[in-house]
Design goal:
Blueprint (H helix, E strand, L loop, with lengths): L1 H22 E2 L2 E2 L2 H4 L3 H7 L5 H32 L1 H34 L4 H14 L5 H17 L14 H8 L7 H16 L1
């Protein structure tokens, strides 16, 4: 169990780095939800963006999320020994999250790659913007993470796990609430990494 959780912790740390590789270009920080609609800002941001950086981010990010899958499966198996229904819910929602978030990560990288490859023109931006809108549904992956975290939180809070009540701190939801007001990048991966690291010592 410890190895699975620590592997997931490392996976999320690496994934956080790959997220930053997509978010930080040599010319500044890229916010996909806002900047992708601004043609002039996009041209400036991606003026010196190397394709290799995007390619490494996509490939390494996919591998890092494969590593993270061990933690979600491990926690769901642990929970199943305590409460079968909770374990099944965590198993399904965890895999739902991993599969779709991997696709989402690669698709976000693809948006940047094709934009740069096509010369950062207005036509290229329109193409990748259409692609982004068509594939944005993959972000529903976060619903799987939400179900996983809520189930784990309830299980620990109920006292059925034998863990102390304060162990609820090692959960993505409360950790993310703390980091949300900050300007830290890759908040989701940081909170998931801390969750798996903390639980690796407690379980």
């Amino acid at each position: 169990m410890d190895i699975a959780l620590l592997t997931a912790c490392l996976g999320h740390m690496i994934c956080g780095i790959t997220d930053c590789m997509l978010a930080y270009t040599p010319c500044g920080r890229f916010d996909m939800s806002k900047d992708i609609k601004d043609s002039e800002k996009m041209k400036k941001l991606f003026e010196k963006m190397p394709l290799r950086q995007i390619e490494v981010s996509m490939l390494l990010g996919a591998f890092s999320l494969f590593m993270a899958a061990f933690g979600y499966i491990g926690l769901s198996r642990w929970a199943e020994n305590i409460m079968h229904a909770a374990g099944r819910i965590m198993y399904i929602s965890g895999l739902f999250f991993i599969v779709l978030i991997t696709a989402h990560h690669v698709l976000c990288g693809a948006v940047e790659w094709f934009y740069v490859k096509q010369g950062r023109t207005d036509e290229a931006l329109e193409t990748v913007l259409t692609f982004f809108r068509k594939t944005a549904a993959a972000a529903v992956a976060y619903m799987g993470l939400l179900v996983f975290d809520v189930t784990l939180l309830v299980l620990v809070f109920s006292g059925k796990t034998g863990l102390p009540m304060w162990a609820c701190v090692f959960n993505t939801l409360p950790l993310f609430a703390v980091l949300l007001p900050t300007k830290l990048p890759a908040k989701g991966n940081i909170t998931n990494a801390v969750m798996f690291l903390g639980l690796s010592f407690l379980i």
